[in-house]
Write a structure and sequence with these properties.
alpha/beta; 3-stranded antiparallel β-sheet; Pantoate--beta-alanine Ligase, Chain: A,domain 2; 36% helix; 2 domains; Rossmann fold; 6-stranded parallel β-sheet; 9 helices
Amino acid sequence: MPESTPQRFTDLATLRRTVAGWRAAGERVVLVPTMGALHEGHLALVTEARRIGRRVVASIFVNPTQFGPNEDFSRYPRDLDADLALLGLAGTDAAWTPAVETMYPAGFRTRIDVAGLTEGLCGPFRPGHFSGVATVVTKLLNQVGPDVALFGEKDFQQLRVIQQAVADLDLPVEIRGVPTVREGDGLALSSRNRYLSPAERAVAPRLHAALAEIAAAVRGGSPVAGPVVEGRAALEAAGFQVQYLAICDARTLAPVERVDGPARVLVAAFLGRTRLIDNVAV
């Protein structure tokens, strides 16, 4: 596995020529899109990418169009040199680090909206977020032209939105989800975890614990309402401000009253000023 800084690209034409050369040589290309501030969860995606492909491209782009006016775009953590060093240690071949002007040049007017999947869960709390995600990911897929792109299951609604957009637009790429990477105490790895104070960090694992308890309670077809209400109350008692806590069909993301097929327990909650999301399969 390579242990040097990956080749960095800021020019789209040069990136495309390089990837075209790899594909002409019969090499499978895998894309790992990121917004930087990398952690072990991102590196797990790179590890999986190396397992299934010959060439790995990671993108680093903090996408302004998926942040709302009162969200944390300006303070979102950025450390490109550290990110490139980590990608090199993980065996990434290339890093695509476009400027905002490259992604959204003057006169840019196109957005992609995915109906249905974006109207619940995070959708009402983050207007325009999923349109920004779908648009930027579609651009990244068109720019890099990978055979496969990997996304973490922690952002499960995002994963489903991207899968739907790719299917609807007939994009020639496979979208795969990779299981969430967690700390030893269960907290899902996230770039935003660094915002937590020591006291908040000690409480944060309750989020995953509550989801696991709810999932265990509703397996086998039991009604979901009681465990969800109890789980929400427990989280609020622990200091979380819960935006939503729901059990949804894993394909449509529609709420379910009983679990009789693949489903997910999903949550978004603030702990202090930090918004955390998580989900577990049922």
